[in-house]
Amino acid sequence: MALMETAASMIFTDYSSSSSSTARLLHFTSSRVQKFPNTISHFRRSNTLKFGISNPKFPRTIITYCSSASPSAVQVTEEASATIIDGKRVAKDIREEVAVEISRMKDKIGIVPGLAVILVGDRKDSATYVRNKKKACDSVGINSYEVRLAEDSTEEEVVNHISKFNDDPSVHGILVQLPLPRHMDEEKILDAVCIEKDVDGFHPENMGRLAMRGREPSFVPCTPKGCIELLHRYDIPIKGKRAVVIGRSNIVGTPAAFLLQREDATVTVVHSRTENAEEITREADIIISAVGQPNMVRGSWVKPGAVIIDVGINPVEDPDCTRGYRLVGDICYEEARKVASAITPVPGGVGPMTIAMLLSNTLLSAKRIHNFS
Ligand SMILES: NC(=O)C1=CN([C@@H]2O[C@H](COP(=O)(O)OP(=O)(O)OC[C@H]3O[C@@H](n4cnc5c(N)ncnc54)[C@H](OP(=O)(O)O)[C@@H]3O)[C@@H](O)[C@H]2O)C=CC1
Ligand SMILES: Nc1nc(=O)c2c([nH]1)NC[C@@H]1CN(c3ccc(C(=O)N[C@@H](CCC(=O)O)C(=O)O)cc3)C=[N+]21
Question: Which residues face 84 on adjacent strands?
Answer without folding.
Answer: 343
